[in-house]
Specification:
Distance between the termini: 24 Å
Largest sheet: 4 strands, mixed
Structural class: alpha+beta
Shape: globular
Radius of gyration: 19 Å
Number of helices: 3
Number of strands: 6
Mean pLDDT: 83
């Protein structure tokens, strides 16, 4: 359950007694080193938020850096020997980063990818995030509503 937009996830389990943990996503920001098992156990034992959180546009900036990093990593694979290229090469990214209610305006992600586009890059990048698909192409940005065909 997301509590009041704070990004903190509250879990409880009755198996073997009562247990409550607060998982603070700001302790797992993009680009920070992986946590050790001892660190993860310490985090899981907390009953209060202990992370630094985000200020201002930090969440949008972090999300944009994450999408840019993934795009650039996949682009190096696109350009590796043995990879079959086509006339048009598109990258689809499924965003499973817990980013709360970020502002999906073009400014953040377009800025992060300004130096990305070339003859060696993907022609388009699509990012599925929440209820939207973000389409990026050489500095152009479109936010498309994701239609769930399985919902009745």
């Amino acid at each position: 359950m997301n509590e009041g937009g704070s990004g903190a996830e509250y879990f409880s389990s009755k198996r073997g007694g009562s247990f409550t943990a607060i998982i603070d996503p700001s302790l797992f920001k993009w680009g920070v080193p992986k946590k050790s098992l001892a660190e993860l156990r310490s985090i899981a034992s907390k009953t209060k938020l202990t992370g630094p959180g985000w200020n201002g546009n930090e969440m949008e900036d972090e999300w944009s850096i994450a999408i840019s990093d993934v795009s650039r990593r996949k682009t190096s694979k696109l350009n590796s020997q043995g990879f079959s290229k086509f006339d048009k090469n598109w990258l689809l990214i499924y965003d499973n980063i817990d980013s709360g209610n970020i502002d999906l305006s073009s400014a953040y992600l377009v800025k992060e990818l300004v130096d990305y586009w070339s003859e060696n890059s993907f022609d388009k990048i699509f990012v599925e995030t929440g209820n939207f698909v973000i389409e990026l192409q050489d500095g152009k940005f479109a936010k498309l509503k994701l239609n769930d065909v399985w919902k009745q």
